[in-house]
Amino acid sequence: MLIDVQVFMPLIMEASQAKTFAYNALEFAKGRDITGYEEAISYAKKHLINAHNKQTELLQLNSREQQADVNVFLIHAMDHVTNAQIICDMAQELAELHLKMAEKV
Length: 105
Hints:
Layout: H1 5-30, H2 34-63, H3 72-104
Helix pairs in contact: 1-2, 1-3, 2-3
Keywords: Phosphotransferase system, Sugar transport, Transferase, Transport
GO biological process, one term: phosphoenolpyruvate-dependent sugar phosphotransferase system
Protein name: PTS lactose/cellobiose transporter subunit IIA
């Protein structure tokens, strides 16, 4: 079985970058570094958008019946994108709470 790394690896890479920047953004917020937080969360969102765009390309291929093989690697990659979305959303919410609490101190 030939596994097309070019299909699933870009999803994993973009999603992983999104998660990393989201966690970095949260750390900046904990340290009350608003500029660092805003920059990191912006990068997280850019990588998440890239991951979604790559995912959409795969869905469009499928709709034109030029689909990529669905295998455990592709499913794993899609899970990375879903997890990245959740992590980015939660990091942003937690970071905003940290920053609001810092304002009150």
